[in-house]
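Fold tokens
===========
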Amino acid sequence: MTRTLINIPEEDKQWLDDAARERQVPMTELVREAVREYRVRQESIRRPDLAAALRRSSGVWRKGDGLAWQEHLRDEWERS
């Protein structure tokens, strides 16, 4: 484990100390827990679930065969 020094406002440090005492864990454990939770939340925002994205977008195109439409558009590009 890497040791890291951070500067935080005095009121936040006091809150951490109080919360650690109440939960009977080291204050550093609360910080590690908070960083893990923040990381999980941020990583889920950056990498949306592909299966969920496919479910949300399924059926959006309602004008027939999507592949045929793409080929039609590409033909127009090649003629330009």
Observations:
- The radius of gyration is 26 Å.
- Residues 9-49 form one domain.
